[in-house]
Specification:
Blueprint lengths: L2 H14 L4 H18 L5 H5 L11 H8 L7 H12 L6 H8 L2 H12 L19 H6 L11
């Protein structure tokens, strides 16, 4: 688990459990600050990959006024966007969409826009949960019941 994921999970849990946005903001902004302020724009790997072209250093003051999430923002949406950006290609997106209840709509929108390899064409509310393996149902002595769509 990466520290950024831990911070974002904690911020999301604060919001989902009825906590205040002000309580969750430091955790979101800690992840954003690392990306905007403390990450070097001109170190050797950045220069080699041409990441440094067009990037300017961002001061703490500029971060706080322009890039930091504020209490007046939709904090849950900010967390969702930050998870998508920070944890891209790390395998969390599917489970995030399922947890947030937006899997079918997101996948159908993807298929409508791109139509790539039929991804998302058949997404529905029945796409999740996955089937419980029969061996687990047998081991539970009837405590587990197969999900209705299987």
């Amino acid at each position: 688990m990466r520290y950024a994921e831990v911070l974002l999970v904690y911020a999301e849990s604060i919001i989902k459990s009825g906590g205040s946005a002000a309580e969750a903001l430091p955790y979101i902004n800690q992840v954003r600050k690392r990306a905007f302020v403390t990450t070097s724009k001109v170190d050797e790997p950045a220069v080699y990959r041409l990441f440094s072209q067009g990037l300017k250093p961002i001061s703490e003051a500029e971060f706080n006024t322009t890039y930091a999430v504020k209490a007046t923002d939709n904090v849950l949406e900010a967390i969702k966007k930050e998870r998508r950006n920070e944890l891209a290609l790390e395998g969390f997106r599917l489970y995030d969409l399922i947890r947030w209840g937006s899997y079918p709509a997101t996948m159908k929108a993807f298929f409508t826009k791109y139509g790539f390899a039929d991804k998302g064409r058949d997404a529905s509310d029945k796409s999740w949960p996955f089937p419980i393996p029969q061996i687990e149902i047998d081991r539970s002595n009837g405590a587990l019941v197969q999900n209705s769509n299987y």
